[in-house]
Design goal:
Layout (H helix, E strand, L loop, with lengths): L5 E9 L6 H4 L19 H4 L22 E4 L11 H9 L3 E4 L4 H10 L2 E4 L2 H9 L4 E5 L4 E3 L5 E3 L4 H9 L3 H7 L1 H10 L3
Length: 192
Amino acid sequence: MEPIRSIESRTVVVPFTNIDTDQIIPARFLTTTTKEGLGKYAFADWRYDASGAPKADFVLNTPEAQGCSILVAGRNFGCGSSREHAPWALLDYGFRAVISTEIADIFRTNSLKNGLVPVVIDEDTHRWLMENPGAQVRIDLETTTLHLPTGAAVRFPMEAFARYCLMNGVDELGFLLQHSEAIDRYEQAHQA
């Protein structure tokens, strides 16, 4: 994982509520254990028609969505079954953060462990983002603040250890490995 201090991008708005993990990446694409290549399956049933052609009316297929790395979604994003493939697909597509008023717990945990930043904000800020797709925003992890082009700075919650891992580009195992010498010394000093 690359360390993340801030993310600045235009936003893509997917205005639906209760977007579950099967809508993020349908179960038929869960046959791989690698992250690479899953981006083409993100929102597959919404992005492509039965022949596999892109649907012109889905936001990710529009020119305005290209290059955006922040997804704004409706309430209860990532609900449904636990699948790490959902944040993998979003990351491989190019998203680095998801913003909503509510992000499902298991999806949020899987996202944090894989380097996708889940940002939970208040209703008023969310409404503004939904009404202004393509807004250039900045997510600052050091201050846990979302900066809007209006000049507003909105704080969002993030657990301290998860924030540390994101900002230092490590997962939980990487964190433990950073302390392996101290762990070895402790074990040697406390042998049975």
